[in-house]
Design goal:
three-stranded antiparallel beta sheet; mainly alpha; 47% helix
């Protein structure tokens, strides 16, 4: 009897599920909890060409930030614990990721919250273990000094990617609450993009497939000015597409959002994603 139950359990865990796009429960479990293990269906490429790393906007911000800390022998934070305006301006002026409100003159860059990409890059770098905060100052750790003395871009990128996906809370710079909607399951979104990204698709196409796999995602949202389903879809697009896929250069973007004409951005996968990840099935 025990052997029969084990056989049934094994069969259930290793049977492809339609809602999982053909992945088995075991494969999905690995994507959710052990995505960087060698058994995962999503594998990071060990060695990534510099030409590819040069095309990853948020990583370029992180690199500049790390080298500023090295150049200045540390960065003194403001009393509120933020980067000083001088450093923010230097990072922003490289133009890797621009903010519409700043570009249109509605907002001046005075604090980290004015540019979500800079804030996210800074917090993620701190989570790599290469930087420490002591007495209101950011300095390199021993690991950071070692990495920069013989600069290893691939090692830094791997550390940065793992910190961004597994440690940095995507919810910290949006208004959708602290629940890990879209971040929990990010690797499945990468697999979806790899599978369907050859043709232009709006984000709703992916958010619906993600919700089909994880139907409880909608339960984190309450009805208000719109439905929980609408709030979920908006949150998914912001976190997955605008502040993950676009920031890492994984997608090509067509069109613009126009609520009056009900036109929305469409996305195709860029060459970068298959230079960073490979799918193993």
């Amino acid at each position: 009897m025990k052997e029969d139950l084990e056989a049934i359990k094994h069969l259930q865990n290793n049977t492809p599920i339609e809602a999982f796009e053909g992945l088995t429960p075991s494969e999905m479990h690995c994507l959710l909890y052990n995505v960087y293990d060698k058994e995962s269906s999503l594998q990071m490429v060990d060695t990534i060409d510099d030409a590819i790393l040069d095309q990853i906007p948020i990583f370029r911000i992180a690199e500049v930030f790390l080298h500023i800390i090295q150049r200045e022998n540390g960065i003194k934070l403001t009393l509120g614990g933020s980067l000083p305006v001088k450093v923010l301006t230097e990072l922003y002026n490289y133009g890797y990721i621009l903010e519409d409100f700043i570009e249109k003159g509605y907002v001046k860059l005075r604090r980290e919250q004015d540019c979500a990409a800079i804030l996210s890059a800074r917090l993620t770098v701190e989570l790599t273990g290469l930087v420490k905060r002591t007495n209101g100052k950011l300095t390199l750790t021993k690991a950071g000094i070692k990495l920069l003395n013989k600069y290893d871009r691939n090692k830094f990128f791997h550390l940065f990617m793992q910190a961004f996906t597994n440690k940095f809370a995507w919810s910290c710079n949006d208004g959708y609450g602290e629940d890990p909607v879209a971040q929990f399951g990010w690797a499945f979104s990468v697999i979806l993009l790899d599978k369907y990204g050859d043709k232009p698709q709006e984000a709703i196409f992916y958010s619906e497939k993600f919700l089909n796999a994880f139907p409880n995602s909608v339960l984190f949202f309450q009805p208000g000015l719109s439905t929980p389903e609408h709030f979920y879809a908006s949150c998914y697009e912001l976190r997955t597409f605008h502040r993950f896929f676009e920031w890492f250069g994984f997608v090509n973007v067509e069109g613009q959002h126009n609520l009056l004409t009900r036109e929305f951005k469409a996305y195709t996968k860029s060459e970068i994603i298959n230079k960073i990840f490979r799918i193993v099935q």
